[in-house]
Design goal:
Largest sheet of chain B: none
Oligomer: heterodimer
Shape of chain B: elongated
Radius of gyration of chain B: 21 Å
Number of helices of chain B: 11
Number of strands of chain A: 14
Largest interface: A-B, 33 and 27 residues
Number of helices of chain A: 10
CATH topology of the largest domain in chain A: Rossmann fold
Order of helices and strands of chain B: HHHHHHHHHHH
């Protein structure tokens, strides 16, 4: 859906984006993660044609993005971190304006606006936008971004300034829209990525440091540990005695290292010796650990 | 008219209507337009009322004869007031959007920057034209009611009005051009004052003054005594700056369009 090749951007002496390459698959929720100042917003603005790239190619659904020409934006919805609206309009008037700008007919716009306002929980809101809370603005921001049924929805840190309830609402909406669109979602809140994203890329110093599906990324950086929690201390002792690399890592919890074959051997041992267990699970590396590892300064 | 451009212009008018700017501006134009014949009408009465006091002070002053010309002279004198109010009230229609980042969702929906420029420029022209028409119309109505305007004077009034209208479009074109260049309204105002100041300074040199737009900014000259005898000559005198102003307006709009395409509105 979105393809970026060899992207460069410099502000004065500072090179912010240094040969960025990544591909966002169709119907994915792509978490674009990086520290503040890593270049996430700069990249998104270049995708939207709001900033001019120094070099590189950006393709949105196969169509090249050109600065100053907003044609590719017709297939994109954009939700900035702090969306700003015309406060003198009502939600319906604002969505009508957006619909007409996208080239939708008045009838389609009206139907779509009602559908979206219902979805984001603003259907009963008849007042002007002036006086809306941050959360309401964010929800209206999603509605405006989706008015033209975009192929690609770009969200720039949409949850960074919201309370937990507001965050959950926004994440739920983004999760729902995956069926009809591809979502590029920049954030530095890793729990949000874990909650909704299918793919993730870590941006560090203007290049992608790690990219893949959430499972791939975890496996890639996993050290092969798995945990066995036994029902009684005797089981823990038996495991430690039989497997030299077993380490007690908690009350009746043993940590072992190895691939899936090794894990099967352990399970066969437990079964063969009638050792009761509560669980056997692969120790997953959290995205936070991965992020810290990827972004640490050498 | 392009549907998106029409939508954009409608949004601009909704803004100025709902925040009261449009109605306030039209009321100001009406009030200042009304002041012209009223001032002319009241002047002799005021002088008459003060005559006793003036006599005591040894000043003898015959009340002037008030005609339609007096009212139109007031019109020419006050013509800058609506324009100044217009620039102050509507001059920030670009810069306030840059500051509020309200254009970002529009541009990311595919709204062309040139449509933003032309929508706002058309709104500025329409609002100013409406205000100027109110200003002229009110003066005309009351002047006709009190004195009636002879055909010869009326011809000069029309020419004067058209002349200043073109000059006001030059001001609008400058406003649009500097609004494309700057992000802050203060930058726009300072640039405009600088250009108008330079126009004034160069206007002191008679040879240069003949071609500058500033020449048509004082069309009240056309009403002065003596101009009726050499009217054709006077119009000829204004012809060159009229054409120059027209060309400058076109150039400013073309440059604004080119620069707007490259401008970051985020």
């Amino acid at each position: 859906m979105l393809s970026i090749e060899g992207l460069y951007k410099r502000f004065g002496d500072k090179e912010v984006i240094k040969g960025l390459n990544f591909h966002v698959p169709k119907n994915s929720i792509y978490g674009f993660v990086g520290t503040n100042g890593a270049g996430k917003t700069t990249t998104m603005k270049m995708v939207l044609g709001l900033l001019e790239a120094d070099a590189g190619t950006i393709l949105v659904d196969g169509e090249r993005v050109t600065y100053g020409n907003t044609d590719t934006n017709r297939g994109i919805g954009y939700l900035p971190d702090v969306p700003e609206f015309y406060s003198f309009l009502t939600t319906r008037e604002y969505l009508a304006l957006c619909g007409r700008i996208c080239g939708l007919s008045d009838k389609t716009t009206k139907t779509r606006a009602e559908e979206l306002l219902e979805r984001v929980g603003l259907a009963g809101e008849k007042h002007r936008i002036k006086g809306f809370s941050r959360g309401m603005k964010q929800r209206l921001g999603i509605a405006q971004a989706l008015i033209n049924r975009p192929k690609l929805l770009i969200c720039d840190e949409p949850t960074s300034a919201l309370d937990p309830v507001g965050r959950k609402e926004i994440l739920d909406i983004l999760k729902e829209v995956r069926e009809e669109t591809t979502v590029l979602f920049s954030t530095h809140i890793l729990s949000d990525v874990e909650r909704i994203c299918t793919d993730v890329a870590f941006l560090k110093d203007g290049v992608i440091a790690l990219e893949g599906t959430i499972d791939q990324v975890r496996t890639l950086k996993s050290n092969g540990e798995f945990l066995v929690e036994t029902l009684n201390p005797a089981g823990t002792e038996a495991l430690c005695a039989h497997f030299p690399n077993a380490k007690v890592s908690g009350e009746q919890v043993v940590t072992l290292t190895g691939n899936d074959d090794e894990m099967l051997k352990v399970m066969a041992f437990l079964s063969g010796n009638n050792i009761p267990v509560l669980k056997v699970e692969r120790a997953e590396t959290s995205l936070e650990d991965l992020f810290m590892e990827v972004t640490k300064h050498e | 008219m392009n549907n998106v451009l029409f939508t954009w212009i409608r949004k601009e008018f909704t803004d100025s209507w709902r925040n009261g700017r449009l109605i306030i501006f039209l009321i100001v134009c009406f009030g200042v337009g009304l002041m012209n014949p009223i001032t002319a009408k009241l002047t002799p009465m005021l002088i008459e009322m003060m005559q006793d006091q003036m006599k005591d002070m040894g000043i003898v002053y015959d009340p002037p004869t008030i005609t339609a010309l007096t009212s139109w002279e007031q019109f020419a004198k006050n013509i800058w007031i609506p324009l100044l109010v217009f620039v102050l009230m509507f001059g920030n229609i670009f810069t306030k959007e840059y500051g509020a980042h309200t254009l970002t969702p529009m541009v990311t929906k595919g709204l062309k920057k040139t449509t933003i420029l032309w929508g706002k420029a058309i709104q500025l022209i329409l609002v100013w034209t409406a205000g100027y028409a109110v200003y002229f119309g009110v003066t005309l109505m009351y002047t006709e009611y009190y004195w009636g305007t002879e055909d010869e004077l009326m011809r000069r009034v029309w020419d004067m009005t058209a002349m200043f209208y073109l000059y006001s479009l030059f001001i609008v074109a400058l406003l649009v051009f500097f609004s494309v260049l700057w992000k802050e309204f203060s930058g726009v105002l300072v640039s405009m004052v600088t250009v108008l100041g330079l126009d004034l300074v160069f206007g002191m040199f008679p040879k240069v003054a003949k071609v500058l737009p500033g020449r048509i900014s004082s069309p009240g000259l056309l009403l002065q005594k003596g101009y009726e005898d050499r009217y054709e000559y006077a119009m000829g005198d204004f012809a060159v700056p009229f054409v120059v102003t027209l060309v400058v307006i076109v150039v400013l709009f073309v440059l604004s369009t080119i620069l707007m395409k490259r401008k970051s509105v985020d």
